[in-house]
UniProtKB/TrEMBL annotation, chains A, B:
Alphabetical list of SMART domains matching this protein: Arfaptin
Chief site of localization: Golgi
Organism placement in taxonomy: Eukaryota, Metazoa, Chordata, Tunicata, Ascidiacea
GO biological process, any: regulation of Arp2/3 complex-mediated actin nucleation
Organism for this UniProt entry: Ciona savignyi
Localization per Swiss-Prot or TrEMBL: Golgi apparatus membrane; Golgi apparatus, trans-Golgi network
Residue ranges of domain AH in the record: 13-211
Database matches in PANTHER family: ARFAPTIN, ARFAPTIN-RELATED
GO molecular function: phosphatidylinositol-4-phosphate binding; protein domain specific binding
InterPro entries, sorted: AH/BAR_dom_sf, AH_dom, Arfaptin_fam
UniProt KW Disulfide bond keyword: no
Protein name: AH domain-containing protein
UniProt cross-references to Gene3D superfamilies, sorted A to Z: Arfaptin homology (AH) domain/BAR domain
GO cellular component, one term: trans-Golgi network membrane
Length: 211, 211
């Protein structure tokens, strides 16, 4: 069936609405995975920043202890870097929570639906093969052998149609649930991500005013 | 003279106070260079952060345009990353200004003083060699040849003592000026560095409140 479809022979069952939804899912997954990759890069760079701020804070503190005439100037810079690295850890935790949430959505929830999609696509292929067989036999002369073959083909067609219909319905239901779940998860994650960043800047500003 | 000093023979002129000041300068330079290296690492990581925030902001914006049900959530995250990368550029400029100021202090101002220190140290070595020559001749029997040698040695001693005294005074004056300059430069740079960071966080908090 794959071969005859590739050669443009044999007809193909197409559920345009469902196909479109599957394509949207695959596209959404690609986009979220891109978001994930960028968030991981951000978390990575941010880890480096926090590490550097820690060491820089210590260097400023040491210079503050050893330079009488610049004690104060080195001190407030030491405190600044200390505050930033401390609050940075909290933001990093939040970024990692976002990464973990979106990873689960992509690698578990979406992949689970895409597995059902794959089974549905395989079943569509089998169903079309049996459907095309049946159609050919229907056009063949009604010899006794062909009538027997027709009965077998009809049974196979019925079984595969039931399986295909079942999987198509499964996919439709799964995609519906997935979409509701995705919106709920992303609404929460995107809000937390934004709030964590706002809290980081507000907290830093508040504490820096005291240095 | 280097050789006899290494072997523990021949006396050595030592200005304890000046030697201590020179040692402090070398130590301060090492510490500031460490600060510089850390600031450059910070600037580097921060450049990476800004780049990632830009790309992440664009990814959020694209998702906002294409996801009706999460338009708002993606939008405010796009704006957040946009604000952060924009204000980050300003902070990066300030960090680079700090780096440039401290680099000038270390590589030009301090190095200039250390060059005078090196010339002073070389002149001290030469002066001590002529001084030890003169002392040896003073202990030698007063033959006519030795009296002639003594006169030559005395002239060489006087010339080199004058040179050594001049360079010692040069170093003393340079170190004094350098110290005043260093404190002035670092006071300014450390204040600007701290204020730039505070401004970055205050500005971000202010703009994030609007997202």
């Amino acid at each position: 069936q794959i071969l005859s479809e590739r050669l443009g022979k044999g007809s193909k069952t197409v559920d345009l609405e469902l196909e479109a939804k599957i394509e949207i899912l695959r596209d959404t997954k690609r986009k979220y995975e891109n978001l994930l990759a960028l968030s991981k890069v951000l978390a990575n760079h941010f880890t480096n920043i926090i590490q550097t701020q820690k060491v820089l804070g210590e260097a400023f503190a040491e210079l503050s202890a050893k330079s009488q005439e610049l004690q104060e100037e080195f001190r407030y810079n030491a405190e600044t870097q200390h505050v930033l690295s401390k609050n940075g850890e909290k933001l990093l935790t939040a970024i990692n929570f976002f990464i973990s949430g979106v990873t689960t959505l992509c690698s578990k929830t979406m992949d689970d639906s895409l597995l059902t999609v794959k089974r549905y696509e395989a079943s569509r292929l089998e169903f079309d093969a049996y459907r095309n067989d049946l159609e050919m036999l229907n056009l063949a002369p009604r010899t006794e052998a062909n009538i027997l073959k027709l009965a077998t083909a009809q049974t196979a067609f019925n079984t595969n149609k039931a399986m295909y219909d079942k999987l198509r319905s499964d996919v439709t239901v799964k995609l519906q649930f997935l979409d509701e779940n995705r919106v709920k998860v992303m609404q929460k994650q995107l809000l937390l991500f934004h709030n964590a960043i706002s809290a980081y800047f507000a907290g830093n500003q508040h504490e820096l005013d005291a240095t």
